[in-house]
Structure of Lipase B:
Amino acid sequence: MRFSIPHLALGASLAVHSAAARAVVAVDEDPAAVQTRGLVGGLVGGALGTVLGLGDVLKQLDQTRDPGTILDILNGVKPRATPTSLPEVQETLQSIYGAATPTNLFTNVALQLGAGLGPQEGGKDLTSIIAELLDGENSVDNSNNPTNVSRPVYPSAAAGDAPFSVPEAQLRAAIQIPPSFTFGAKPPVLLVPGTWSYGGSVFGANLRKLLTGSPHADPVWLNVPGGMMRDAQVNSEYVAYAINYLSAVCGNNSNVTVVSWSQGGLDTQWAFTFWPSTRARVSSFLPVSPDFRGTVLANALCLSADSELGLGPCDPAVIQQEHASRYIETLRAAGGDSAYVPTTTLYSGFFDEIVQPQHGAEASAYLLDARGVGVVNVEAQSVCPPGSPGAGFYGHAGMLYHPLAYALVVDALAHGGRTGDVSRVDVAGLCSHYAAPGLGLEDVLATAGLIPVALGLMLTSPDKRLVEPPIMPYAKALPSRE
């Protein structure tokens, strides 16, 4: 039996969650403190869990650290509710993820699935969805063999570039170029996904949908083998190659605009840092929910049947995204804490359930501008008027449909691929919407469903480690701290 979640039952708690989250995070920017909050166990969304009848499920999830058991439990969660409006989606997501004290992400995902905010189209469970994920738009084996490559891009596009460890055929096959692509008649836009995801599904219901057909954008996307779960340094090779390849096949010195999500932003910055040739081929960089300083919540995703939460093995890219990882330290020490190209970062303050801290100048998404190329750091809740929908709850995936985020992407593209300019867009009008114009309830639900699918991919990924991959020789690793 399906039903809509009663607004009155949740209304009082939502206001408390929002105010508490702002109060706690605003005065507590210390990463160690944020990490402590992120590792606290216990049930979340108690009222919602009761409404959905998921009390026993939440208890089971809170008591296990075994990936297979967690996946089995999540597979058994069926939608108990049907969201009927965008305000209801935002309110429900806030009731799940908006608590002042972040808790077990797997119990949160169970609540999300039970509230009808997951990807269970046609009654499929997470295992079935993941099994079908690499078909079609998420293919990692695409045939890209145009003959009009105007300059060499492999084994090196220019002197000073890092060497590739991945064969060119594999790098090229990860780029999905739709049949409508004009090869330079319109500005190419490269869409780069995040951890536990592929470009087709990440952007299909949001930015790619909106940009397709635009006179200022011609989107293609990356599907990195392994779903961006393997060594982030290798993931960055796919980004570096795709930038130079797309620019070369489009001819006339075409430059690329890069739009990324999550780890995609971090790896693009790594590509700019160690493949200098890419910088001259990019007009604008627009990372959504990036983690340039990593996240203090990464450890909370490392688990096994024999460990406490946060102490188990993790996917290589997750360890590399820990706040104090060698990957993060190496990038920042090499100059990656500042932009190399005109950059507009787009992120949600306080409410990002994956990346923290994410507020003010200490936000992980915050980039400096030491090179004077132009940087605009856009924290949605600090730009949208207080009390407007756009200043409300948007999580890690929610920024992909945020109306201000899309407007600034379009603004950057329409103005020669520079930075987006808040002064050129109708902030008040945009922030009065819950989602970018052109997106509806189905699109928002599909985007929100990226988080459960990502967690499902994490639970099934085979390559788990206790330490991050060694820094590549070209990156001039920092001296040992031991």
Remarks:
- Residues 7-27 form the longest helix (21 residues).
- The first strand starts at residue 175 and ends at 176.
- The radius of gyration is 21 Å.
